[in-house]
Amino acid sequence: MPQLASSVENVPRSRIRELAEIAMSMDGVLRLYFGESNLPTPEYIKQAAFRAMQQGFTFYTENAGLPTLRRAIAANYQHLHGVALDPLAEIVVTASGVQALNVGIRCALNPADEALVLTPAWPNGSSSIMMANALVRQIPHPLCGDRYRVDFDALEAAVTPRTRLLLYTSPSNPLGWVASREEQQGLLDFARRHGLWLMADEVYDRLYYAGSSLGEPVPSILRLATRDDAVIVIHSFSKSYCMTGWRVGWLVARRDLAAKATELNEFIISHAPTFAQKAGETALAEGEEELVRMLERLKENRDLCLSSLRGVAGVTVPVPDGAFYLFPRIDGLADSFAFCKRLLEETRVGLAPGVAFGAGGEGSIRICYAAERSILEPAMDRLTAFLRAGI
Ligand SMILES: Cc1ncc(COP(=O)(O)O)c(C=O)c1O
């Protein structure tokens, strides 16, 4: 009997999904386990997709995505970051952020190479590295006072001659940590010094609460890097425009990697859905007002959740500057999966277990606060009552 390849057997299943699958088999669950809101995609984006279908955007397109969308993405980088990109050589549209991660990693790593990943982090980065038959070394963010930091000493200690890539996520899922300019520069210098690809997952860059006004993006690593640097930026329409089910994202990379990712796309997905790409163009062109309204709502939700957790003894939760998650650490919690399962079964509140996010994640739980108040408020009431009753 042929067996499954050991390389795929070794890729662990997502423990967020594992919990979600239990929750999906139950009724009446307040669902805060995935990184999305219960609010639908805004109407103007849906209308753009209908129009695109009627206009005939239902055929195959370029492997790198519609040139019009790539130009719109380039214009957006110019506008938001003052960065000039060649839309046809440095941008590849993908069928989601996770597909951008996957193809980018495939282009950067050989089997048995090593990759450093800053954690706690969304598990799909580490798993994509394993799917490329490479090895993951996770380096946890230390919490210093009330801010997470990058452990540059641990990074230096973890580099070997086989290390080829460093992946970080800013704003972070699940921490909400946002890399400072010094930390970005430090990561770039580190990658340059050791000859590594630097992969920056920036899918939450528009969900930022610490700028001078809501709507201001987290500065992209592309502002510091040159176009010849071995930098890969991962992005997506999912989070900023409530388009999780549409599966459209992109990557920005040095030309050689972007060209290879374009070629490989043919064999993986060919390209993102054509009418969804057109809807993405509309989101970029018309989405600012709606985005700012969403950010106002998210910031209020964040503050509501923070204040209800702050009243519970034994819970530590730094203020996140970006994304839409809280990652409270709970004193004495040794099995976050068992905790989340019990919480789900006893209170019908669905959260993601900290253990799903790799090194540094156990002992915490992740709350996605993007849901509407009618879901979030009872969920927080039930969670805090559950915590007060003792773990
Ligand atoms: C850090 C991070 N990167 C990438 C993604 C990918 O998003 P999508 O595949 O929906 O574009 C997610 C989704 O949760 C994420 O949290």
Structure commentary:
- With 391 residues, this protein is of the alpha/beta class.
- It is built from 14 helices and 16 strands.
- Strands 2-10-9-8-7-3-4 form a seven-stranded mixed β-sheet, with helices on both faces. Strands 12-16-15 form a three-stranded antiparallel β-sheet. Strands 1-14 form a two-stranded parallel sheet.
- α2 packs parallel to α13 (336-347), α4 (67-81) runs parallel beside α11 and α12 (288-310) runs parallel beside α14.
- The protein starts with 5 loop residues before the first helix and ends with a helix.
- Pyridoxal-5'-phosphate binds at residues 35, 96-98, 122, 169, 173, 201, 203, 236, 238, 244, 249.
Please work out how many helical segments DSSP would assign: 14
Q: Mind describing the biggest β-sheet?
A: 7 strands, mixed
Which bin fits the share of residues in helices? Answer: 40-55%
Question: How many β strands by DSSP?
Answer: 16
- Secondary-structure element order, as H and E? HHEHHHEHEHEEEHEHEEEHHHEEEHEEEH
Mean pLDDT: 97
Distance between the termini: 46 Å
Structural class: alpha/beta
Tell me the radius of gyration.
Answer: 20 Å
Query: What small molecules does the structure contain?
Result: pyridoxal-5'-phosphate
Placed side by side, the strands forming the largest sheet appear as 2-10-9-8-7-3-4
Task: Name the quaternary structure.
Answer: single chain
Percentage of residues in strands = 15-25%
The gross shape turns out to be globular
Poorly predicted runs of 5 or more residues: none
Layout of helices and strands:
Elements lengths: L5 H4 L5 H10 L5 E2 L11 H12 L12 H15 L5 H4 E4 L2 H12 L5 E6 L4 H8 L3 E6 L2 E2 L2 E2 L3 H7 L4 E7 L11 H14 L2 E5 L29 E6 L12 E5 L1 H14 L5 H13 L1 H23 L4 E2 L8 E2 L2 E2 L5 H12 L1 E2 L1 E2 L11 E4 L4 H16 L3
Parallel strand pairs: 1-14, 3-4, 3-7, 7-8, 8-9
Antiparallel strand pairs: 2-10, 5-6, 9-10, 11-13, 12-16, 15-16
The protein binds pyridoxal-5'-phosphate.
